[in-house]
Amino acid sequence: MPPPPVGREWPAREWDVEPEKLREYASAVGETEAIYHDAGAARARGFSDLVAAPAFAAVVVAPAVAAVIFDPEVGLFDPEVGLSSYRFVHKRQLFRWHRPIVAGDALVTRARLVDASEAPDGRAGRVFESETVDAAGEPVVSARYEGVVPPAGGRRKGSSRAGSGTRASGDSEHLRHGSPTQPSGAVSRPAAAGDVFPALSVLPGPEATKRYAEASGDFTPFHLSDEAAVAAGLPGIILHGLYSFAQVVRAHTAPWGGDPRVLVELSGRFRRPAFPDRPLVADLEVAEAEADGSLRTGGELLQGGRAVIEEIEGRLRPN
Question: Is the distance from CB of 199 to CB of 184 less than 8 angstroms?
Answer without folding.
Answer: no
